Amino acid sequence: QFEQRVSQEESRLLQSRYQANAKRGFSVAQINWGTDFSIPFRPDECFLAEKQISVSAAKNEKKLLLLALNNFSPKTIEYRVSLENDRAQYNGQAGLAGFPAEKIEIRRGVRIRESDGAAPAELYDPMVTLNDAGIISVPPQEAVPLSIDFDTAGVAPGEYRGKLRIIPLDQSGKFISVNGSFNRRDYSGPMLDLPITLTILPLLSLIHI
Fold first, then answer.
1. Phi/psi at 125 (5° precision)
2. How far is CA 183 from the centre of its chain?
3. 0.70 exceeded by the pTM?
4. Which of 65, 74, 157, 170 could form a disulfide with 148 if both were Cys (CB 3.0 to 4.6 A apart)?
5. pLDDT tens across 81-110, in order?
6. CA distance 115 to 142
7. Which segments of the chain are extended strands (E)?
8. Residues facing residue 163 across a β-bridge
9. Looking at residue 155, what is its pLDDT?
10. Which runs of consecutive H residues, i.e. helices, occur in 95-202?
11. Which residues lie across from 111 on neighbouring strands?
């Protein structure tokens, strides 16, 4: 009975956290590789209000930025995920401004069985590449892990800026015509633009660390 009461209290507290964040609709939060990827996936970081993300990498390193996309609503929602540069004008290339787009890869978690037993638990396995549509489906009041991989080989040290754009597809919105043409950077409707800065450190800085 004690364990049952504890479980009920934990469930009540979890529901109250989701209800308190219902107006936000969804969130994106940075998590680490020590996170429990068991399903239902609900890392505590998702309830924080992430305003920007900064990450540092060494030259010639593959840097993985691990995130969780959290759905606060009571229904499954699909989201369009993209990484945009911070330039006002479309330049034919997504990603961080000045960083080679071909050296960036966005991945999402996939649900797998933990074992071949009769009633195995489920968890999110290592990431698979996000498709060209950039769509991630997130169950109600749960999260899905995603990662952004930056390959810094051959890229000059410095700061590279952009924004992670999340668009919920269950709500009305539209792309805006600019000078008679459309591009995915000009959008009117509910969305999140989360600033991201990648700093590639010069070799000298790494020696002094």
1. -90, 170
2. 22
3. yes
4. 65
5. 988 886 654 444 578 988 998 999 999 999
6. 22
7. 26-30, 53-58, 62-71, 77-85, 104-113, 122-129, 135-138, 143-151, 158-168, 174-178, 181-188, 192-201
8. 84, 195
9. 94
10. none
11. 124
